[in-house]
Write a structure and sequence with these properties.
The protein is of the alpha/beta class. The protein has one domain (2-192): SPOUT methyltransferase, trefoil knot domain (Alpha/beta knot, 3-Layer(aba) Sandwich), CATH 3.40.1280.10. Helices cover 37% and strands 18% of the residues. The protein has helices at residues 2-18, 36-49, 67-71, 74-79, 95-104, 148-152, 171-192, and strands at residues 23-31, 51-57, 88-92, 108-112, 121-123, 135-139, 156-159. The protein is globular.
């Protein structure tokens, strides 16, 4: 009993400590994933990097509609290493429904995709991900990539520079790389400003990295 109390206290302490580092109004969107393992991996990446929420476009109905039911799904808990219990996940039947929901909530979408003709495109490290208060970052299907509809609904496309013979990355790896850069920029912004559009500059910037245990 005493051990369980200590464990719960430790969990609460950790939850309180990470609040200030969470990237507000940042959502990772997974469009039509074909493998539930990849959904868990992206949720794990999002949680570890401080992304606020994960949306899943799930036309196959692989996930329950309710987040509480997802939290109890063993396959998701296992592949996300329990991150699904700590990161809010919302399911949508299709891309159009997800885009409409994001637009209604005031979110701007960007798509991770190779450069698309007629669409503003940047390499990951060249983009500024602090321009919009609310940002949704889309990741496409493992085989087909991002849909034309998602690209059309996005302000720009982000590409990860690659230098090898193989010019592709799996969903878990690409989401980790992209979300790291986006979250890093937004966390640095939050440390300097209380509100959007560079208003309410803080007299003392907040830390952007948690102290190491024991330091």
């Amino acid at each position: 009993m005493e051990i369980e109390k200590k464990r719960r206290a430790s969990v609460r302490e950790r939850a309180d400590a990470i609040k200030a580092f969470r990237c507000k109004n940042l959502i990772a969107v997974i469009e039509d994933p074909s493998d539930i393992k990849n959904i868990g991996t992206v949720i794990r990446n999002a949680n570890a990097l401080g992304v606020e929420k994960v949306y899943v476009v799930d036309p196959r109905g692989a996930l329950p509609n309710d987040w509480q039911d997802m939290r109890e799904r063993r396959s998701l808990a296992r592949t996300s290493v329990s991150a699904v219990k700590w990161t809010f996940v919302k399911r949508f039947d299709g891309t159009e429904a997800c885009l409409k929901h994001l637009e209604k909530k005031g979110f701007v979408s960007v798509a991770t995709s190779p450069h698309v003709k007629g669409k503003a495109s940047v390499y990951l490290h060249e983009g500024d991900y602090t321009q919009h208060t609310k940002l949704a970052v889309w990741f496409g299907n493992e085989k087909r990539g991002i849909s034309d509809l998602a690209v059309q609904g996005s302000e720009m496309c982000i590409a990860i520079p690659m230098f090898g013979m193989i010019e592709s990355l799996n969903l878990g790896t690409s989401s980790g790389i992209v979300l790291y850069e986006v979250a890093k920029q937004r966390r640095a912004y939050q440390s300097r400003y209380r509100r959007s559009r560079r208003k309410g500059r803080r007299a003392e910037p907040l830390p952007t990295v948690m102290p190491r245990d024991g330091s």
